[in-house]
Design brief:
With about 250 residues, the chain is an alpha+beta fold. It has 2 domains: about 100 residues, Potassium Channel Kv1.1, Chain A, CATH 3.30.710.10; about 130 residues, no CATH class. Helix content is about 25%, strand content about 40%. The protein is built from 8 helices and 15 strands. The mean pLDDT is about 85.
């Protein structure tokens, strides 16, 4: 590339190298006018444009110009300062997005798992404050059923007979219900239900094993276990509460 295609800026002592076309994304901005020698705030020193502004915040300005998205770290807090920098550079679409601070801040998600163990069956109910997270989790969980004879709760492997997948119960967009284990149906036929949670390929029938895999899946997905309590000692219902900070998707201009 020729020298005219490459632009070097020194912003607050931090050096940036970019394309001229990147700085010209918004023709009315000060950065675009700078390339036409129409910006008294910028000094050309040894082939580099010197800018007496915050270099750390300018890295977010450059990311915006390159992607046309606002995507900030989860612990970012200088929204007003960054908005002020965007206004200085004449990047008003960015400044308008930053003024909607509530859309850019990470949101706290709560997820609750209720687990009940009753003889040879285990019952699960999952509630989440974010319906998208619950929907994603529901796509990972599959319940399989089949009629068996002489099959026990602790058997580690399903029989050779084909199992039929069952849809999860979805009382609302924010929760799901499923169960595993064995039960007798009409005619004393033993009905078995197995649970599989992707990416694990096992089909588990033991409720305690399913619970362990479910909790491990949530922890790997960024959730943090904040409390464990017994909701009903008579019905043996346990509740596991999780939370995580969910980073919002980048806003696009």
């Amino acid at each position: 590339m020729s020298n005219r295609e490459v632009v070097v800026l020194s912003v607050g002592g931090v050096r940036f190298v970019t394309r001229a076309s990147t700085l010209q994304q918004f023709p009315e901005s000060r950065l675009a006018r700078m390339l036409n020698d129409d910006g008294w705030e910028f000094k050309l020193v040894n082939g580099e444009f010197f800018v007496d502004r915050d270099g750390t915040l300018f890295s977010y300005i450059m990311d915006f110009l390159r992607t046309l998205q606002v995507s900030l770290p989860a612990d970012f807090s200088d929204y007003q300062r960054l908005q002020r920098e965007a206004e200085f550079y004449g990047l008003y679409p960015l400044a308008d997005l930053l003024s909607q601070e509530h859309l850019l801040k990470p949101r706290l998600e709560i997820l609750e798992v209720r687990f009940s163990l009753q003889e040879t069956q285990a019952f699960f109910r999952i509630f989440g404050s974010c319906s998208t997270t619950v929907e994603t989790l529901a796509e990972q969980i599959t319940v399989f059923t089949g009629q068996q004879s002489g099959w026990s709760w602790n058997s580690p492997f399903p029989p050779q007979k084909p199992l039929v997948p069952l849809p999860l119960e979805r009382p609302s967009h924010h929760d799901m219900v499923f169960q595993c284990g064995t039960d007798y149906s009409a005619g004393d036929q033993l009905v078995a239900r197995y649970v599989s949670i992707k990416p694990d390929n096992r089909k588990l029938i033991n409720g305690t094993n399913v619970l362990g895999l479910l909790l491990d899946t949530l922890l790997k997905d960024g959730f943090r276990l904040i409390s464990t309590r017994t909701v009903s000692s008579e019905e043996k219902v346990e509740c596991y509460s999780f939370e995580r900070m969910k980073r919002p998707a980048g806003l696009t201009v």
